[in-house]
Amino acid sequence: MNVPVNKKSFLELLKNENYKKELINSLTISLIDDDLKRDLEYNLNYILDKRMDVFDVLCGELNDSDESVEVLVLPSVRRAWSMVFINTPTIFGINDKRLELFQLNWDIDIFLNYLKDIFTKVKNCLDQFEHLDTSVEILNLICQNYINKLISDCRKNKTKEEIKIEIRDLKLKQMLK
Fold it and tell me: CB within 8 A of 87, min separation 6: which ones?
């Protein structure tokens, strides 16, 4: 793929505070709930301020027709985050404590570590699909698999008391973080 010489890389653009602010705004603008918006903004800023290491692994193009992977990281985080907090799995009812447990299990560091680890293992798994943007599809699959893991963890046979204890422990962990 021919890249113009004067085209700034995505990572160079992220050094510009205005660009960073507008990028985060573009990923949060559709959120109406202020608390959810602040939470997603926090997650995205956290990545850009403290977890740039994720871009060391998730970078470049998987093939000539693909979008550059680093451009897709933040939208992938937003996708996974929204599956936890906005488009929650219908398997959990509104007053189901397992939904609260599911949401408390979201941890941006764990997700990013999973994303980095699994991406290196599966990045070439769709090479035979010449008409797909494999970068997008692989990241979609990784996000969905992570969410399915969280769902599975919450669906395990647990008593109401075990769920309450797990919720309490996760809340304490978040407070100490």
Answer: none
Distance CA 55, CA 74 (A): 10
Q: How far apart are CA 56 and CA 113, in angstroms?
A: 12
Q: Do the Cβ atoms of 69 and 58 come closer than 8 Å?
A: yes
> Rounded distance, CA 166 to CA 89, Å?
19
SS (H, E, C) the chain: CCCCCCCCCHHHHCCCHHHHHHHHHHHHCCCCCHHHHHHHHHHHHHHHHHCCCHHHHCCCCCCCCCCCHHHHHHHHHHHHHHHHHCCCCCCCCCCCHHHHHHHHCCCHHHHHHHHHHHHHHHCCCCCCCCCCCHHHHHHHHHHHHHHHHHHHHHHCCCCHHHHHHHHHHHHHHHHHC
Residue 7 pLDDT grade (very low, low, confident, very high; cuts 50, 70, 90): very low
Cβ-based neighbour number of residue 115 at 10 Å: 21
Tell me which of 134 and 83 has the higher pLDDT. 83
How far apart are alpha carbons 51 and 67 in whole angstroms?
A: 21
Token reading at 62? 């998987």
Judged by average pLDDT, the poorest of 45-49, 103-107, 129-133, 164-168 is 129-133
Given a contact cutoff of 8 angstroms between Cβ atoms, the answer to whether 138 and 125 are in contact is: yes
